[in-house]
C-alpha cells in the first residue's frame, strides 16, 4: 500500500522524474535486487527506479539523451536571462530586487534540471546524486522566492530595504540548505534520519516529498491568492489579474503534462524523448507571463537624464 511520502509510484510511472536519482543510489547501495527492468543495468539505466518508460543513458541504444528537454532548457536559459536584464533596467519598479532574485533562482534551476533529467550521467553516480540534490534545493528556494515576492507586493515592509531583503534572503538560504541536505542524506544515506527508506522498494521520504512536491504547489497557490488580494483589493485593478491567472493556467498545464502525458509521449516516441520538454516550455512561459504581470502593476523606471524645469 502506498503511503504519504512514497516516491515509488512516481519513479515507476513518471519518466525523467529527477528526485528518483537520489533513490536509485540509495537502493543500489542498500538492496540492489530491487532494481529490475530498465533500471537493472546502471550503465544504461534511464532516470527513474524501474520506470515503465525512460530514455537510456546517452550512447546506449542510439540514445541522444533527453535531447528535446535539453533544447527547451537551453532556450529557456536565454529567455530568462533576457527577463533578468529587462527587470534590472526597471530601477523604480516596486519589488525589483526581489523579483530579480526569483528570476535568477529559476534560471539556476534550468542547467541543473538539464543535467538531472538529461540522461547524461550514469545512474547511481556521485555526480548525478549531488547535482540532483542541489537541484532540489534550488527548486524549494525558488518557490519561496515566488511566495516572498507576493508578500513584498503587499508592502508590509518596504521593498529593496534591509528589512525586506534580509528576511527574504534568509528564507531563500534556509530552504536551499535544508532541502539540499535532506536530498543529500536520501541519496548518500549519511544518517538514518532522512536516509534509507523502509521498506527499500517504497522509496520513502516524507521530508523530501513535502519539500519537492507539496511545498511548490502550496507556494504557488498562496502566491496567486495574495496577488489577487493585491491587484483586486489594494490596487482596484482587473487587467493585471488576467496575467496572473494565465501564469497559473500555464503552470498547472505544465504539471499535468509532466505527470499525465509524460509517459504517453515517451511510449509513442519509442523511448527517444519524453514530455519533460513540454513541461519546461510551459513553466518558462508561466515565468515570462509573471514578468509581464509584475511589470503591469509597477511603475516604469526613471530615465537617467530627468528634465528639471528652470
Automatic annotation (TrEMBL):
UniProt keyword Cytoplasm present: no
Keyword Membrane: yes
GO CC terms of this entry: endoplasmic reticulum membrane
Keywords: Membrane, Transmembrane, Transmembrane helix
Sequence intervals crossing the membrane: 67-87, 99-121, 127-152, 164-184, 204-230, 242-261, 273-294
GO molecular function, one term: unfolded protein binding
Pfam families given in the database record: Chs7
Name under which the protein is recorded: Uncharacterized protein
Species, as recorded: Trametes coccinea (strain BRFM310)
GO biological process, one term: protein folding
InterPro entries linked: Chs7
Record PANTHER family: CHITIN SYNTHASE EXPORT CHAPERONE (PTHR35329:SF1)
Amino acid at each position: 500500500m502506498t503511503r504519504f511520502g512514497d516516491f515509488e509510484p512516481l519513479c515507476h510511472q513518471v519518466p525523467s522524474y529527477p528526485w528518483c536519482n537520489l533513490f536509485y543510489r540509495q537502493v543500489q547501495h542498500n538492496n540492489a535486487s530491487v532494481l529490475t527492468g530498465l533500471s537493472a543495468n546502471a550503465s544504461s539505466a534511464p532516470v527513474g527506479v524501474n520506470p515503465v518508460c525512460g530514455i537510456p543513458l546517452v550512447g546506449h541504444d542510439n540514445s541522444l539523451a533527453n535531447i528535446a528537454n535539453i533544447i527547451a532548457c537551453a532556450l529557456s536559459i536565454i529567455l530568462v536571462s533576457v527577463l533578468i536584464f529587462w527587470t534590472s533596467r526597471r530601477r523604480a519598479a516596486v519589488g525589483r530586487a526581489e523579483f530579480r532574485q526569483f528570476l535568477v533562482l529559476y534560471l539556476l534551476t534550468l542547467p541543473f534540471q538539464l543535467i538531472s533529467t538529461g540522461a547524461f550521467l550514469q545512474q547511481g553516480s556521485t555526480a548525478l546524486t549531488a547535482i540532483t540534490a542541489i537541484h532540489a534545493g534550488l527548486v524549494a528556494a525558488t518557490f519561496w522566492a515566488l511566495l516572498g515576492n507576493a508578500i513584498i507586493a503587499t508592502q508590509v515592509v518596504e521593498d529593496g530595504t534591509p528589512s525586506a531583503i534580509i528576511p527574504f534572503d534568509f528564507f531563500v538560504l534556509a530552504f536551499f540548505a535544508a532541502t539540499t541536505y535532506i536530498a543529500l542524506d536520501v541519496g548518500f544515506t549519511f544518517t538514518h534520519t532522512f536516509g534509507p527508506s523502509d521498506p527499500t522498494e517504497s522509496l520513502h521520504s516524507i521530508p523530501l516529498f513535502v519539500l519537492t512536491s507539496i511545498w511548490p504547489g502550496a507556494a504557488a497557490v498562496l502566491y496567486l491568492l495574495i496577488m489577487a488580494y493585491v491587484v483586486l483589493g489594494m490596487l482596484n485593478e482587473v487587467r493585471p489579474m488576467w496575467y496572473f491567472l494565465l501564469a497559473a493556467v500555464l503552470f498547472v498545464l505544465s504539471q499535468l503534462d509532466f505527470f499525465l502525458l509524460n509517459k504517453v509521449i515517451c511510449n509513442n516516441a519509442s523511448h527517444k524523448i519524453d514530455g519533460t520538454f513540454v513541461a519546461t516550455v510551459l513553466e518558462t512561459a508561466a515565468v515570462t507571463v509573471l514578468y509581464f504581470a509584475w511589470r503591469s502593476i509597477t511603475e516604469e523606471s526613471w530615465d537617467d537624464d530627468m528634465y528639471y524645469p528652470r
